Amino acid sequence: MSWTYSCPYCDKVVNPDETVILLAERGDQQTLMGFHPQPGNYTIYVPPGVVLNRGDEWEFSCPVCRANLRAAEHPNLCALAVWQGQERRRVLFSRIVGEQATYVLSEKQVAEAHGGNATVYDTGGIGPTGH
Predict the structure, then answer these.
(1) DSSP code of 37?
(2) Do residues 100 and 42 touch, judged by C-beta distance below 8 A?
(3) For the chain, which terminal residue's Cβ has fewer other Cβ atoms within 10 angstroms, N or C?
(4) Amino acid 130: pLDDT
(5) In what order do the strands lie in the sheet with 44-45?
(6) What is the predicted pLDDT for the residue at 31?
(7) Are 110 and 124 in contact (CB under 8 A)?
(8) Which stretches does DSSP call E strand in 36-115?
(9) Consecutive 10-residue runs of the chain (131 residues): their mean pLDDT?
(10) Residue 23, CB half-sphere, CA atoms under 13 Å: how many?
(11) DSSP 18
């Protein structure tokens, strides 16, 4: 089943095809980054010349309304809305290069946790479930 991601502020779809596209900023760099839509797949697509160094922190924004996507649960996580079929959920993901931590939230609890760093964050008392 496919995943449809949208901005939690303007509800615009940010994966018009098979890639989640976000506006990314670090220092004076600003670019579009693409992410694989499957939680737990950490493939990132960047334009030529963009260097991603392990540990770098990036700011992510909606490419349509430019709202900052930082999650309230932790300053190192960003949030998107996601639809899988008829069910709307939230996805939290790390904004730190090389850190693999993704959480799919359903009704204020973690339905899925992905990545080798998924135990790093307590997502506002929701916390990873050890998947």
Answers:
(1) S
(2) yes
(3) N
(4) 34
(5) 44-45, 29-35, 20-26, 59-61
(6) 97
(7) no
(8) 44-45, 59-61, 77-84, 87-94, 102-106, 109-114
(9) 89 94 96 94 95 96 98 92 87 94 78 69 48 30
(10) 12
(11) S
